[in-house]
From TrEMBL:
InterPro entries: ASHA1/2-like_C, START-like_dom_sf. This is Polyketide cyclase. Residues 11-114 form the Activator of Hsp90 ATPase homologue 1/2-like C-terminal domain. Belongs to the AHA1 family. It comes from Trebonia kvetii.
Length: 115
């Protein structure tokens, strides 16, 4: 698998209700941008946000995500619910699988960090 080049695009982070997050990476010669807005932040309970993904100037997807946290016997249970619209056939039928794979990698990294 080709490596993502982190820090190769714009970056900003304003973590508050109404705040904005934006970052970019390069992957296989294409610049990708993640552009998010936070709608609900309840510490220790819930985070709701929406985001758009761009490949160059083309918007390729729009998603809304809810992350919920609940006490569990062994620590904290994290529930991630996301609905995405994949636009103009970008990445075709593989788009949901690729997005799920990226999210899984991110959560695996979080688990290693917290262990």
């Amino acid at each position: 698998m080709a490596e993502v080049e982190p820090g190769t695009g714009p970056s900003e982070f304003d973590f508050r209700i109404g705040g904005h997050e934006r970052f970019g990476v390069a992957f296989q010669g294409v610049s990708y941008t993640y552009d998010a807005r936070y709608y609900d932040i309840v510490p220790g309970q819930r985070l709701v946000y929406s985001y758009e993904m761009y490949a160059g100037a083309a918007r390729i997807s729009v998603s809304v995500a809810t992350i919920e946290f609940a006490e569990a016997e062994s620590g904290t249970r994290l529930t991630w619910t996301e609905q995405g619209a994949y636009l103009d056939g970008f990445e075709g039928a593989e788009a949901p699988r690729l997005r799920e794979g990226g999210t899984s990698e991110m959560l695996d990294g979080l688990a290693k960090y917290l262990a």
